[in-house]
Amino acid sequence: MNIRGHSKLKSTELLERATIVVPGGMYGHQNASSLPAPFPQFMRSGQGARVVDVDGNEYLDLMCSYGPVVLGHHHPLVERAAAAQAKLADCQNAPSERMVEMAEAMVATVRHADWAMFQKNGTDATTLCCTIARATTGRRRILMAEGAYHGAAPWCTPRLAGVTPEDRVNVGYFTFNDLESVKAAVAMTGDDLAGIIVSPFRHDAGLDQELVDVAFARGLRNLCDETGAALILDDVRCGFRLNVGSSWELIGVAPDLSAWSKAIANGYPLAAVLGSDRFREGATSVYTTGSFWFSSVAMAAGVATIEALRGEDAIATMVRMGEALRTGIALQAERVEIGIKQTGPVQMPYLTFDDDGRGNHLLADFFASKALENGLFIHPRHNWFVSAAMTEEDVEVALDATQKAFNAVSALMRSRATR
Ligand code: PMP
User: Fold this and answer.
1) Helix ranges, 3-121 (H)
2) How far, in Å, CA of 276 to CA of 197, rounded?
3) What local confidence, expressed as pLDDT, does residue 360 receive?
């Protein structure tokens, strides 16, 4: 791995230019201003499990574009399929046959799905799930877990600037994994419950991740069955990283509707809503569309992604690499006697430091910045993503960087103790 003196010259210069023509220079989840200083704002290229920033610094990639890259950057099968379609056309007067192929592939792959509709981003998909739930049930209220991320639309964005109370009048809240809190929220909705939206596990930014309690998931299913509301699984972040199928197939709970994006086309822009037959008529009745929603290149990439996920046993590879990484990190932390927690599925790891108070990520920030300077791209306040392009050698490279980062944290903690 290169990193001979981590440079940020070009990235800083680009950000200065961007600040003149882009509000704040950058926005949204990829805004590096909320990350420690060494993080670059702009990237140049990627191949397999490696990415290169605009200054030519190369990193082993454990963020995978915040999820979309599941097979590795520039996966040959996906690239070939996308290039072949691009030669024909991408954005046309009507969808190409790739749309039908992708819908067939999703319906064949995801057990609860009888039909599929496509969009671009995860927010499109989660919002459309709510709309279809309302159109089907004729009711208004949607329940979601407090602090959960379902996208950047007014009904769910975590920042309230520009959001009116009316945008959220029909949203209620419960606590993830706390069925009693859901029952209380359901009781408050009376007979107006359209749907309950939930992620496969709790992956709220900055908090230790929490796997789903099976009894909680089953309880949600029962509540929806009793009330006629839609159980909506937001599989945008986890979809096709935990399972080639819905993430809750692993625990035997079927949603009525599910939202997908990120990994379904290995980085090409595509989102999907999948649903069961009961919601087909409601889905047919809503007016939903977008200028680029039917572009064929991403759909061709999606079909190839599903084929490669299966053909290459990608989930098993991610589990193996994720387990090796987790074991290695645990050993390193133990050796330097630093208390840490590693939470979530191994393909979506997250690391917190016991000595970082709640909402305070100073050690995590410092650790991430040292890992970055040593060639590993991770995030201090967001779960990481393992891709199927990772090899045993890559895990060694990652662990070399985390070892150096732990050493730096250890030195920092010692210097704090002697002050
Ligand atoms: N739901 C979940 C669980 C997500 O993680 C995200 C994106 N981080 C979204 C919805 C929104 O997806 P997008 O950013 O593509 O709109």
Assistant:
1) 9-21, 76-88, 97-109
2) 15
3) 80
Query: What's the rounded Cα separation, in Å, for the pair 274 and 149?
Result: 19
Q: 62 near 386, Cβ under 8 Å? A: yes
User: From ligand 1's centre to the CA of 173, what distance in Å?
Assistant: 18
Assess whether the C-beta atom of 48 lies below 6 angstroms from ligand 1: no
Which of 286, 311, 336 is the C-terminal boundary of a domain?
Answer: 311
* Cβ of 239 below 6 Å from ligand 1: no
pTM to 2 decimal places: 0.97
Q: Which domain holds residue 247?
A: 76-311
Same domain, 129 and 234: yes
pLDDT tens track for 127-145:
999 999 999 999 999 999 9
**pLDDT digits over 11-65, tens only?**
999 999 999 999 999 999 999 999 999 999 999 999 999 999 999 999 999 999 9
- Ligand 1 atom nearest the C-alpha of 271 is 15
State both tokens at 222: 């029962």
DSSP lists the bridge partners of residue 59 as 51
Q: What is the C-alpha to C-alpha distance for residues 415 and 36, in angstroms, rounded to an integer?
A: 20
The CA-atom distances, in angstroms, between 110 and each of 107, 252, 375 are 5, 12, 37
> 238 and 356 share a domain?
no
List of E strands, 244-349: 257-260, 271-275, 340-343
Dihedrals phi, psi of 104, to nearest 5 degrees: -65, -40
Distances (CA, A) of 351 to 188, 304, 377: 37, 32, 13
pLDDT tens, 316-364? Answer: 999 999 999 999 999 999 999 999 999 999 999 999 999 887 668 999 9
How many whole angstroms from 123 Cα to the centroid of ligand 1? 6
In a domain? residue 237 = yes
Q: How far apart are CA 154 and CA 162, in angstroms?
A: 8
Strands 193-198 and 141-145: parallel
